[in-house]
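Anyone able to model this chain together with magnesium ion?
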Amino acid sequence: METIILDASQTENIELCAGILRDGGLVAFPTETVYGLGADALDEKAVAGIFAVKGRPQDNPLIIHVASIDDVAPLVANVPDAFQILASKYWPGPLTLIMRKSYKVPDSVTAGLDTVAIRMPEHPAALALIRACGTPVAAPSANPSGKPSPTKAQHVLNDIGGRIPYILDGGDCRVGLESTVLDISGETPKILRPGGLTHDELKSVLGGVDVADGVESVEKPMSPGMKYRHYAPKAPLTAVSGSPDKTAEYIITRLNIDTAALMFEDFAITHPNVVQYGHSEDHTAQASRLFDALREIDQLGVSKIYAQLPQEDGLGHAIANRIKKAAGSSIVDCNEE
Ligand code: TXA
Ligand code: MG
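re: yes, here you go
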């Protein structure tokens, strides 16, 4: 199958892709976080196609994307109080909410769980596509399972070109990291995956917000998807934590022809294997560059990678989380060196 990239700002292209989704097919589309691989969430067979194209483990549930807050009620068993507060403040946006599911949601979407993940994306093309298709759209990030998420249409083409008919090109994703996954099905809201919306932003409208234990560990994940090695470039990656001057020094002394580094632009040196990802104090720039930078490093063909970890305030929490997941258990702390 030839995969065609379509301009997402053209209404006829949105209509074309909505038709594919209605007929049980798959299309990739832009969101403000990362590109998604969409299917009709209420069509079991279409959803199975997502798992096949991504090579995704069957026990990893999908997020359902809606175009309006009103689309949520039919998909959930009950609407928690926290939902109204959060959705009115942060939707559309990078926040996925976990609630108890209704009978309407197929088990294949939720991987057999009795909860469902729902979000309303902010990108106008995503909203237009869901509206035109007239059904909620299940969509994971449009990368093969385990690889960095796509933040450009070209990334999707490189990853799964030939396996889907169309990619809607809506430009570079603004946020560059996936949505924050927040479980509001229990007593206290709990972050299962840090992402584009920060813990502080959630706390500002909710009383208490926990961070699930499993978020930082590869061994004991809360969100099924967080247990796999993720966001991983081809070569093994070591995440280096500490102040940026120390981590830069640690990495620079280890650089060679076969070793690459992901560094902040204000600490990077000129070297063919150094790839920059934003200023050390600019989490917004780091987030929007991270996945593209990991892909650039893949092109270098090195056998070892080091990455400077950001400070973990605000969006830095989610950025560090992705780099640590890419590193598996290979993390060094320069403060202890
Ligand atoms: O920003 C995003 O969230 C992007 C765009 C395309 O919307 N989507 C995305 O989907 O990142 P995916 O499939 O790559 O990640 C979904 C995450 C996984 O970690 C999955 O385990 C978790 O959400 N998840 C989905 N349903 C869940 C549930 N019922 N309970 C707990 N975790 C759930
Ligand atoms: Mg993903």
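Residues 283-300 form the longest helix (18 residues).
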